[in-house]
Design brief:
The protein has helices at about 20-30, 55-65; strands spanning about 5-15, 35-40, 45-50, 70-80, 90. By secondary structure, the protein is an alpha+beta fold.
């Protein structure tokens, strides 16, 4: 098994109100990725995810696609060292700035 990596991603476009967070959680669970996804008040969706490199690369490909009713304009991905902070993948409360 490869070393765990952490992904911090912000996705913009039509990504709220279209089932995006549920789509992401389902794909994270299928890939064995842990972390969370939440809406932001600026209309973006933010994700912190941990897993092995191969699973996270596949996860990012899913982020770029999104569910059927979404339109992904941009995915900004920042790669970090995993902190082993999560047991599963959750939908977190909206982040208020």
């Amino acid at each position: 098994m490869s070393e765990a990596t952490r992904l911090h991603a912000v996705i913009t476009g039509r990504v709220q109100g279209v089932g995006f967070r549920f789509f992401i959680r389902r794909n994270a669970n299928q890939l064995g990725v842990t972390g969370w996804v939440r809406n932001r008040t600026d209309g973006a969706v933010e994700i912190i995810a941990e897993g092995n490199d191969q699973d996270l690369q596949e996860f990012v490909a899913k982020l770029r696609t999104g569910p059927q009713m979404s339109w992904v304009q941009n995915v900004v991905a920042e790669w970090q060292t995993a902190k082993d902070s999560f047991d599963d993948f959750l939908i977190a409360p909206t982040a208020y700035a």
